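Dig into what follows:
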Amino acid sequence: MGTEMPARLEPDGPLLKITGLDVFYGKIHALRGVSLRVRPGEIVSLIGGNGAGKTTLLCTISGLIRPSAGTIAFDGADITRRQPERIVADGVSHVPEGRLMFSPLSVADNLRLGAYSRGSGARESVAEDLAKILEMFPVLRERRKQAAGTLSGGEQQMLAIGRALMARPRLLLLDEPGMGLAPLVTREIFRHIASLRDRLGLTVLLVEQNARRALKIADRGYVLETGRVALEGDSRDLLANRDVQRAYLGRDLDA
């Protein structure tokens, strides 16, 4: 949220590079040799059915789950075994499925907690970023003293995104931001996500059940099926792909 953008990789180089990732839940092989790349300043969507491994992949990137094989590189550095708090400090923020608010705390306090990794010496810049977040989400400014648990679902999703931005990430991981929200509210949330790329140059890895909506704002996409990357490509090509249309966009082209 600062005025100066952090140092960037070369335009065509990956900010996030995942290679051969395997993850197990006991005997269940949840991710199988997953490899993908996310370049600076783009939105990449992960689509797939329930149980495909999308949430598992985001949790593994953010350090909440340990892989059994493979590597995760962020800005050229191996973060595969780093602790979650270190990964946040490195510039990766994760907005989990279900938003996970600190319900009794105020909106403003929830946002301030998002800047915890920046340390006590960043109070002035944290205050500046808090003001920018409240400007970005006017409804949060109106409710900044209100308990987070009393917000609507859409307002809580804005708060969850704002809290993640308070860490000044370079990569934002978003897990099902439209879950449980009315269509109009979902459209507003997705406009905000596109704005993060277009106005702030933020890189976003997006998991969303609504494949059409996710691909429409994305630059590229990956399709996960039973823990594997089944398909990847430009978002427009995936939207036009017959198999993707049948499986995820609600179209039966043979009907």
Observations:
- The domain at 16-99+169-248 is CATH 3.40.50.300 (Rossmann fold).
- The radius of gyration is 18 Å.
- Confidence is low (pLDDT under 50) at residues 2-11.
- The first strand starts at residue 16 and ends at 25.
